[in-house]
Amino acid sequence: MATFTLTGTGIQAISSPSSLAVTITVHGSLARTGQANPANRFDEGLLRIGTAHGYLPSIPIDATSMVVPCPAGAVNLGYALLTGCTITVEERSEQLLPLPTIGSLSVPIPLVISPFSWESCGPLLASTGTAGPTSGGYALANRASIYPFRLLTSFTVAFAFVLNGNVVSGNWDVGVYDASFARLASTGSVAHGTAVTAQTVAMSLVLQPGSYWLALACDNTTQTFFNALRTVPTQQLIPTRLANSSFPLPNPLVPNTTVSPANIYAFGISAVALA
Fold it and tell me: pTM for the complete prediction?
């Protein structure tokens, strides 16, 4: 991997690195310092990463030392450095998790989505003071507990998981449904595994930005999961659903008309295996 020293403006060929380490060696005469820690920089310059098909949006040089993720096939680095600014750029094989942009907002790509995530009920649970999850039994055999979540960026699902409680028994099923309760993927019936551990099962699915439902169904009430218990009125504040007689998870899922679950179970989907 090569290292370049750059000034002025131009296009530097790069050899498809996974990321770039950018360091300001001489600050520009117009540069200003922000209030971040470490300090952010203004008016140093702009970078644009290019592939054979074109260039990505410009990236401001906003730190004395920063790292920039590169897409597959990155072959050019466009740069425009303001008066007096000099940078070194090191090609690196280190892979970084990119931050896709929505307008001017950077949205981190999640690794785990559960009812406790910010994509789901997490903010409402925190704002209503709901206690954290503890081990407890499943409320009703063959019932599906259903929780909404929303994605602002695409998410590649590799696994589904449940956080097993102190007692294991019977079988469970985890699935993902679209906004109209059509099933997109599910694990099918899975034997309840080791107590007090995250039990992970492979499940492949790519979700695009939009609204979805997470569902957990179990075939008995002896088995336990970590869960948080809500009471009225917070039970009505969070738009969750129940569906009786729904094990294994059916397609489509038909929620009950008026009842929402008091239990928030610790389960979900992830891009990596939890255990």
Answer: 0.64
CB atoms within 10 A of CB 215: 24
Q: What is the pLDDT of residue 204?
A: 94
Q: Is the pLDDT of residue 88 over 60?
A: yes
pLDDT for res 193 = 92
Q: Which two tokens stand for residue 8?
A: 């002025």
How far apart are alpha carbons 257 and 242 in whole angstroms?
9
3-state SS class at 84: coil
pLDDT at 102: 55
The answer to whether residues 161 and 200 touch, using CB atoms and an 8 Å cutoff, is yes
Name 177's bridge partners.
183, 213
49: enclosing H helix or E strand: strand 45-51
Which residues make Cβ contacts (< 8 Å) with residue 105, sequence separation at least 6? Answer: none
The secondary structure of 97-110 as a DSSP string is: ----EETTEE-PPP
What's the rounded Cα separation, in Å, for the pair 77 and 70?
10
Count helices and strands (H / E) in the chain: 2, 26
Which amino acid is present at 170?
G
Q: For all residues of the chain together, what is the average pLDDT?
A: 88
Nearest to 155 by CA among 176, 124, 182, 186: 176
| Residue 135 burial by Cβ neighbours in a 10 Å radius (0-12, 13-18, 19+) | middle
Q: What pLDDT digit, counting tens, does each position of 228-256 carry?
A: 887 666 666 677 899 999 999 999 999 99
Are residues 207 and 189 in contact, defined by beta-carbon separation less than 8 angstroms?
no
3-state class of 41 per DSSP? strand
Look at 6-10, 159-163, 232-236 and tell me which has the smallest mean pLDDT: 232-236
